[in-house]
Amino acid sequence: MQKKVTPSLIKNTAKAAPEALVSLTTTEGAPGKTLRLVLAGRLDADGTAQVWDKIEKIVAGVRGGAVELEVSGVTYCDGSGTAMLLDLRRLAEAAQSTLTIVGLHEEFGQLLAMFDLKDVQGPNVTLREHRDLPSEIGHAAARVWGDVWNLIEFVGEFWASLFYVLARPKALRWKDALHFAENTGADSLPIIILIGFLMGLITAFQSAIPLKQFGAEIFVANLLGLSMLRELGPLVTAIIMAGRSGSAFAAELGTMQVNEEINALVTMGLDPIRFLVVPRVLAAMAVMPLVVMFFNFFALIGGGVVMVSLGYPVVTYSKQVVASVTLTDLTGGLFKSVVFSHLVCGIGCLRGLQAKGGPSAVGDSATSAVVSGIILIAVFDGIFAVLFYALKI
Amino acid sequence: MKPTSDTHIIEVKGLTAGYGADIILRDISFTVYPGEVFCILGGSGCGKSTLMKQMIGLYHPKAGAIIIDGDDIVTAEGRQRKNILRKIGVTYQSGALFGSMTLKENIKLPLEEFTRLPQDAMNLIASMKLKLVGLAGFGDHLPAELSGGMQKRAAIARAMALDPRILFLDEPSAGLDPITSAGLDALVLSLAKNLGITFVVVTHELPSIYAIADRVIMLDKGKIVAEGAPAELREKSDNIWVRAFFNRLSPHDQQQQQSGTP
Fold first, then answer.
1. ipTM of this predicted complex?
2. Cα A259–chain centre separation
3. Does any CB of chain A come closer than 8 Å to the CB of residue B202?
């Protein structure tokens, strides 16, 4: 029976104290005379590793002299051994000294003969050019600008396609749009309800404690109503949508890009934006306000649970909520949510279409979709805050 | 089928293309005649896929013109471009069928977008195209439920949905066993013979080339190094690379043969 090798055993042997596989002896001649090196033993990866640095230093240290490397004692020499011999030749050439290899067994010499010094050094091709800090910053800025430019271009194309579709409703694949509406809307309700309920509960509970000191627990209703309807409802729902749908769209379209399905669409004369992006984004924009309403509603229920447990009747709480918010608070929040869903799902689709390369590109585009989606939400939420303040909404 | 007339269906003139600062194709010119099977050959990375993507209008060249049936696809826009695209069908290396749709829906997609045919007419056309490629009865299968060879056939059926005059195939035998790929070659030949479709095939499979090609061009480092019938090139070409390709030798071996050493 074969003995099973456990990983720990492998680790131990690798770490065991190195036994000398290769011996290196040096005979110094008078200055200007030949330096004699004698190398013996197994020149495999482990063996060469023991002497590589040492012998490199010795050979490089001889400037303009002659080195004789005696290797008749070498019992085995593979790719790494050959690499070391080649490296020594290179060093000798760089130091303008001569290196002669003496007594190399013919079987080992064959591999060495296959390589020329030129082959190994090769032309200096640098695929990734090294940049200093200022040009790195410049390139990064250009990249960001290019990304923003792409985004603007994409938004333009999307709206052009959207108006095209609105003018000719038959040009939209309604079956797809309904499917995506179900996917982004109905299917997301469980998590939306759960998060909404918990956020309402937690916010109410945390704020009830300090407010209780002033006997003002009832104002938890005001706090919850305003913060959820105006801010947290749209924001949190949009973030959940970025994670759920934005990434899914990016992965889906990214896979299609990698499989050349997008190219197939283009060569069929079909516009990928109209065909793939519009149904997704339109569906998301249509269902988003409904989803946010669910979030708001269950957040208020969560707050209600806290209030009831503090001894307030349900009717007091609900009246207080209704009295504290206006219809504008609700519609303002819902309008924001429509914009957020446009951003989140649009950037998801864009990142998918931008996917380049193999399967890892799909993962990258999904990640990038979520990150860019959340950044866009934050930026636009800030813009809305200023805008609503200026408009006194 | 041999060229029936001197009038060409595709003319590529002085095409230079690349990505960014890299030039991949340099000053490529050739013509394709109606009804012939025209193969673009070359080793990996020689630019043959790039050439095809230029010809189907996916990328813009840096210079040159690609005239497809009288119109230049490089400069065409809007309606004119759509008209050119209607004349061509493309199948990609991976098949590129839409995974969420059945085969029938895949084939019906271009019909739905470009025609006002009633649904039952489109269903009938889809079934006919599937029959043509030997996939009758598979209309309700999803692409993932088929083998690689069947997916390629289905992709050809989809590319033929609008009865194009030219079909572009990108490495049709990639990843297929020799028997399946021979079946695909037979399909290409029968479509060319019976329907008069012009084929432009990008490939490096030697058996395939001998089986289907009327004429080939061979690319190396972004340039055309040979043009002609495959048998002719094998016998007569003075380009070492071309001879090596057709005789399945590395150029290194050829050099040795020529100099008489073993």
1. 0.80
2. 21
3. no
Percentage of chain A exceeding pLDDT 90: 52
Q: Do A260 and B58 touch (CB under 8 A)?
A: no
Which residues of B fall within a CB distance of 8 Å from A259?
Answer: 94, 96, 99
Q: According to the model, what pLDDT value does residue B206 have?
A: 82
- CATH architecture label of B10-87+164-228: 3-Layer(aba) Sandwich (3.40)
Q: Which of B92, B168, B171 should we substitute to test contact with A (largest number of A Cβ atoms within 10 Å)?
A: B92
Confidence of residue B258 (pLDDT cuts 50, 70, 90): low
Residues of B in contact with A261 (CB under 8 A): 96-99
CB contact under 8 A, A264 and B92: yes
Q: What is the DSSP string of A178-215?
A: HHHHHHHTGGGHHHHHHHHHHHHHHHHHHHHHHHHHTT
Interface test with chain B among A173, A260, A262, by most B beta carbons within 10 Å: A260
The pLDDT, as a whole number, for residue A29 is 59
pLDDT tens for A107-139 read 888 888 887 776 666 555 555 667 789 999 999
Contacts with A, B 105-134, CB within 8 Å: 109-110, 113-114
Write down the domain spans for chain B.
10-87+164-228
CB contact under 8 A, A268 and B113: yes
d(CA A205, CA A303): 8
DSSP state, residue A159:
H
Q: Is the pTM of this model over 0.90?
A: no
B256 touches B262 (CB < 8 A) = yes
Q: What is the pLDDT of residues A242-260, one digit of tens each?
A: 999 999 999 999 999 988 8
